[in-house]
Amino acid sequence: VKDFLSRIEARKNLNAFNFVFSEEAIKKAEEIENKIKSAKHGKLAGAVIAIKDVLAYKDHPLTCSSKILAGFISVYTATSVQKLIDEDAIIIGKTNCDEFAMGSSNENSAFGAVLNPIDESRVPGGSSGGSAVAVAADLCDASLGTDTGGSIRQPAAFCGIFGMKPTYGRVSRFGLTAFASSFDTIGPFAKSIDDIALILSVISGKDENDSTSVISDFIEYPIKHFNNQKIKIGIPKEYFAEGLDEEVKQKIFEVVDKLNNTGIEVSEISLPMTEYNIATYYILTTAEASSNLARFDGARYGYRSKQSGTLEEMYVNSRSEGFGSEVKRRIMLGTYVLSSGYYDAYYRKAQKVRRLIKEDFDKAFTQVDLILTPTTPSVAFKLGEKSGNPLQMYLSDIYTTSANLAGIPGLNIPIGINKERLPIGMQILSKHFDENKIFQISSLIN
Ligand code: GLN
């Protein structure tokens, strides 16, 4: 813990943490050391873990990197965080992120941007940028992030580490501040696939506080590394079309060759609805966000405007001053697509397209076990490069949103670096609750 704390201090400029719990973590480490001595310790005894600042942790601040939650202290602990604590993990702090998890670069934060530790002039990805950087820069052993449209997989790719978005429903969302409830998932970042599997096995399971969580097949840990059983892999041709960086593409095909050489069957497949992913994602998630974020009214949580003479003034001024511009943009878009004149044209239609996207995957998984794609169209881009152009920024998620639309799991695997020594990531997708298969194959890749 002390080692990590001194590194956190030394790399403060990365801005990965919103809050560090130094004294508490040191005290906890001493307690756990004693538990280890008496051999009565949990599965994560001594593991030092950081959590994204959208997860509730009782008696600790919860800001979602937004001014509107300034000063708010959680009154309960998220189930996923409690499960880590119950297995004797040490929570070292809360990580920076895009405001309410909306973004792909971690530049939309009231705490300021997070820097990529590999090249500090570049973004770490987002929204869980702080969680990815905390692991990549060795500021903790592992971390939790959230993934609504790519926010674990994309920053993992930009920082060169593993990051897993589990099947929707595998991990309880209780205590996660809702962005788009039917898309939101919680998952781990780590430097090894074994750590990913271990943490996922700990945080999974049915929770009576989240009715969408399910009793799921358990995660095999230790992982049964590839045991030569027949696994078929599909490469969706739509994910290798225009817009994909050449070096990223080349690295992916090196991996495909490697798999081919071990006798694994790799074939081209088609996911014809791919072109509608981004539009469908942004209609549905903004709709859900506009409803979820209505609770931040200046009355209940955190920030209240000083100009709150009337009730209406309190609402309008607290929200105008408390939310950042990306969050406001999403609330407006979401309110628009849900409004009575446009509901059928946008929201209802997008719900139907979401079903078709899911059916694309259902069909593909009758032909193959796993789908392999790039995680991102490019390597980490420069700070400020896309922040003035929201549409460009939204395209960073072109390969990741589909898994959230369909509810399936996805893992980022670091597969190498480009000429500028920037990390390149590859995504593996499986059908619902087939995470074990993803883990098995990943040992062959990295
Ligand atoms: N970058 C995407 C967005 O801005 C995904 C965010 C996320 O997964 N939380 O919505």
UniProtKB/TrEMBL annotation:
It comes from the Bacteria. GO terms for biological process: translation. Gene3D superfamilies: Amidase signature (AS) domain (3.90.1300.10). GO terms for molecular function: ATP binding; glutaminyl-tRNA synthase (glutamine-hydrolyzing) activity; transferase activity. Its EC number is 6.3.5.7. GO terms for cellular component: glutamyl-tRNA(Gln) amidotransferase complex. InterPro entries: Amidase (IPR000120), Amidase_CS (IPR020556), Amidase_dom (IPR023631), AS_sf (IPR036928), GatA (IPR004412). Residues 1-438 form the Amidase domain. It catalyses: L-glutamyl-tRNA(Gln) + L-glutamine + ATP + H2O = L-glutaminyl-tRNA(Gln) + L-glutamate + ADP + phosphate + H(+). The keyword ATP-binding applies. It holds the Pfam family Amidase. Keywords: ATP-binding, Ligase, Nucleotide-binding, Protein biosynthesis, Transferase. The active site is at residues 52, 127, 151. Heterotrimer of A, B and C subunits. Allows the formation of correctly charged Gln-tRNA(Gln) through the transamidation of misacylated Glu-tRNA(Gln) in organisms which lack glutaminyl-tRNA synthetase. The reaction takes place in the presence of glutamine and ATP through an activated gamma-phospho-Glu-tRNA(Gln). Belongs to the amidase family. GatA subfamily. This is Glutamyl-tRNA(Gln) amidotransferase subunit A. The lineage of its organism: Bacteria, Pseudomonadati, Ignavibacteriota, Ignavibacteria, Ignavibacteriales.
